[in-house]
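Researcher: Let's do a round of design. I'm pasting the structure tokens now; please hold your answer until I've finished.
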């Protein structure tokens, strides 16, 4: 089978499309014929070696955690799913023609493979950081970098829970944020004062890693009310860095529920072939995403 791999840490150019042995579903796992795989910032951060001290990676390594596709093998002890079922979920080395998933759920009716591949890690992260922020119904949450996958999910989950959201994004994504129910402003000069004019901020999430943690602390009045998933300098200003994944099965179930109820939709901004993995990572690192990027197999 074809698979995206890297044999050394570095820039997008270390990615290679290689021939590899097919993985197989062990106990409690399923294998899918991958139709699409989510492109997440964590993918290129691992490839760049940013996590090698806290999350050792054995080289050569595959790439990707999220995928959608048709069930191809069912491991021992797995119930409720059959060969041919369409599912989306999380596993490893998902930029490939076949991948093993450790968590999955059936795709809601009307959802495409490309759309489905963008939800697993995004939903897990969004649910986790909302929970860690402690924000409740009737309060206001500020999201720095709100137009990407995680930000888009946070906005829609918050709306479902009665939480107001102020979102920052580039000028081209202001209407997009408003369409998801957020009060929106750009993140250029004067953004802190513009946020203040939009109302009180009870908690803040940094999903962009754009070096604004001190400003987020200023706006909330307490570093304990700020959570970052993207700025490694978080602890220097007393902000919690959230990097330990929560429950993927819970996230998948919540995603399926919200999608089925018409309360969650994250658009796919761009799709890439496996041979274009380097371009996908280059674009992901550049940011300014509206929704998700995915690999199509």
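Researcher: That's everything. Go ahead.
Model: Designed sequence:
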């Amino acid at each position: 089978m074809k698979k995206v791999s890297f044999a050394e840490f570095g820039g997008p150019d270390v990615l290679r499309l290689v021939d590899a042995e097919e993985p197989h579903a062990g106990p409690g796992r399923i294998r899918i014929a991958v139709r699409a795989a989510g492109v997440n910032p964590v993918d290129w951060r691992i490839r760049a070696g940013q996590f090698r001290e806290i999350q050792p990676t054995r080289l050569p390594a595959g790439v990707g955690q999220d995928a959608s596709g048709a069930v191809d093998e069912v491991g021992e002890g797995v119930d409720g799913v059959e060969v041919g079922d369409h599912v989306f979920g999380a596993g490893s080395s998902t930029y490939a023609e076949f991948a093993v998933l450790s968590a999955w759920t059936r795709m809601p009716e009307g959802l495409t493979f490309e759309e489905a591949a963008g939800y697993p890690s995004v939903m897990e992260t969004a649910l986790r950081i909302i929970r860690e922020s402690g924000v409740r119904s009737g309060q206001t949450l500020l999201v720095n970098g709100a137009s990407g996958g995680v930000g888009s999910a946070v906005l829609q989950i918050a709306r479902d829970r009665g939480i107001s959201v102020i979102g920052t994004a580039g000028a081209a994504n202001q209407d997009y944020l408003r369409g998801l129910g957020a009060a929106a402003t750009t993140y250029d000069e004067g953004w802190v004062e513009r946020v203040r004019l939009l109302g009180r901020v009870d908690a803040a999430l940094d999903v962009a890693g754009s070096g604004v943690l001190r400003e987020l602390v200023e706006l909330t009045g307490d570093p304990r009310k700020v959570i970052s998933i993207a700025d490694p300098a978080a602890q220097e200003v007393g902000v919690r860095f959230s990097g330990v994944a929560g429950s993927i099965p819970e996230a998948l179930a919540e995603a399926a529920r919200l999608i089925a109820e018409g309360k969650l939709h994250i658009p796919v901004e761009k799709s890439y072939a496996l041979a274009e993995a380097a371009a996908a990572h280059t674009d992901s690192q550049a940011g300014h995403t509206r929704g998700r990027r995915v690999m199509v197999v």
